[in-house]
Amino acid sequence: MAEAQQDWNAMPDEDFRQIFRTWADANCPAELRFMRKQRPLYEEVKVWYQALADKGWLSPLWPQEYGGMGLNPAKHMIYVEEWARLGCPRIPDHGIGLTGPLLLHYGSEEQKQFFLPKILSGEHIWCQGYSEPGSGSDLASMRTTAVRDGDDYIINGQKIWTTLAHCANWILLLVRTDKEAAKPQQGISVLLAPLDLPGVTVRPIPNLREEADFCEVFFDNVRVPVSALVGEENKGWTLAKTVLSHERIFLGAPTRPEYALARLQALAEARGAFSDPAFVSRFAKLRLDVYDLGSAFERFARVLRQGGELGADVSVLKLFNTELYQRITEEMLEILGEEARFNDDIEAGDIGIDAMNLYLDSRAPAIFGGSNEIQRNILAKAVLRLPG
Ligand SMILES: Cc1cc2nc3c(=O)[nH]c(=O)nc-3n(C[C@H](O)[C@H](O)[C@H](O)COP(=O)(O)OP(=O)(O)OC[C@H]3O[C@@H](n4cnc5c(N)ncnc54)[C@H](O)[C@@H]3O)c2cc1C
Question: Which residues sit with their C-beta closer than 6 Å to ligand 1?
Answer without folding.
Answer: 127-131, 136-137, 161-163, 214, 364, 367-368, 371, 373-374, 377
